[in-house]
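Hi C.,

You asked whether I'd gotten around to modeling the 499-residue construct. I have! Everything is below, sequence then structure, no commentary in between.
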Amino acid sequence: MWWKILLGLLAAILIGFFIMIERVGVTPGILLSSLFGMGTGTPEASTIRSSLKVPPGFSVGLYAGHINNARFIRFTRAGDLIVAQPRESRISLVMRDANGDGIADGTRVLMDNLVRPHSIDFHEGYLYIAESNAVGRVRFDHETGTLTGDYERIIAGLGDEGNHWTKTILFGPDGLLYLSAGSTCNVCQETDPMRAAITRYQPDGSGVERFATGLRNAVGMDFSPLDGHLYATDNGRDLLGDDYPPCELNRVEAGQFYGWPNVNGFGDPDPDFGDEAKREEAIPPVHGFRPHNAPLGIRFIQLESFPEEYRNVALVALHGSWNRSTYDGYKVVSLHPNSEGGYDERDFLSGFENNGDIIGRPVDVAAGPDGCVYVSDDYAMAIFRVCHGEEAAQAVPAPESPSLPGQPASTGLENYDPVELQALVAEGETLFRTRGCTSCHLVNGGKSGFGLKRLENLDDRYTVNSLRSFFKTPTPPMPPVRLDNEDQELALAAYLLEL
């Protein structure tokens, strides 16, 4: 039967893939962390207190939890926090801490039914949103935290196929809109001129200009208050071993080329696409992060509440490795300018990884109006709050309750008739067992094995709609779940949530 042939092919591909990744230094545990890395749930306050570490004089606590796929963040002028959730297809508003207890006062959806929104920014009364295939804007009232007009896509047709589909936007001091888009591949000759590059636009989306190239996946951008330049993090290529090449921080200038795919790190020709002429042209990074640490969000911090040594430094969220034989990254670091024109890197918020036990993967950093720093985490599904000169008990929420702001109140299955739900679950189980899912997943008491991930308690993290969205855009390198129609998506989601 055709499905047996397909299942055999999928199994062969999976086995071959595991053999390949072991040869280049990847263990199954590292891979599974990325394959199924949507998160294991927001850590309890006791875990935060015992695991997370900050410099002397600082404290860390949980500001808001159970925010699925929390990626880039921005504060409104009133102190609310906007969070992009690409795999939820929405933008949420985390309500300001009005009572001063160090915990957000709630979370609500600001805009839904978007196409993988990854980052946001404000400019002249508009909230700008970078979807995977477009940039849009809508009028926003900062005081009420509400939208006051219709959403308009001002830049359309952006490519989001292949790797690195996220788009990051940032308004510069020149009033122009900067857009970063990663490459379609690990390493290749890119055919889309908008990818592996930063482009620049007028605020209405007109006047596109290719600003800088050779940036494989420059996810984070910010302008330095010291020199006014644009700085961007960049993720180095994969499949060259544990310790090569470094990830990068680049000072990005108009018209310059930053190496990819021809040059890695500080001038090394790529083994596949090395080019001497390109090596001479490539601008080296101003700082090298450890290989595969995946630097994402970057912010230059100017908080009066912070000690002098932490003013005007850059805080960078290291998302952590997925393709090393040992875990590395998983923290926020501070970059301090040194006398040699580079940066000294120090741990700022660490402890998300301890001997292979991972409780979080930082994504973005923002300075809050209360003088504290906020860190989004798409693995812990959380926003963390780091303050200076504040007692830890004030920064860490005491109650360890499943009703923290942002947790789904229900999966959505309660709206179905019991008989209808039973039929959906039965169909979903058939799909699970015939579409190759059992090659990677275990359910219902199965014994763990090589390369297999147990699925349980999914209803703690997903609703029907968010799980269906995850089928379409799972955490790389897991492929999309190929189903025939929306009814099958619903059935498979129902089965997994009812486990």
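If it helps when you're writing up: Residues 2-36+409-497 form a domain with the Cytochrome Bc1 Complex; Chain D, domain 2 fold (CATH 1.10.760).

Thanks,
B.
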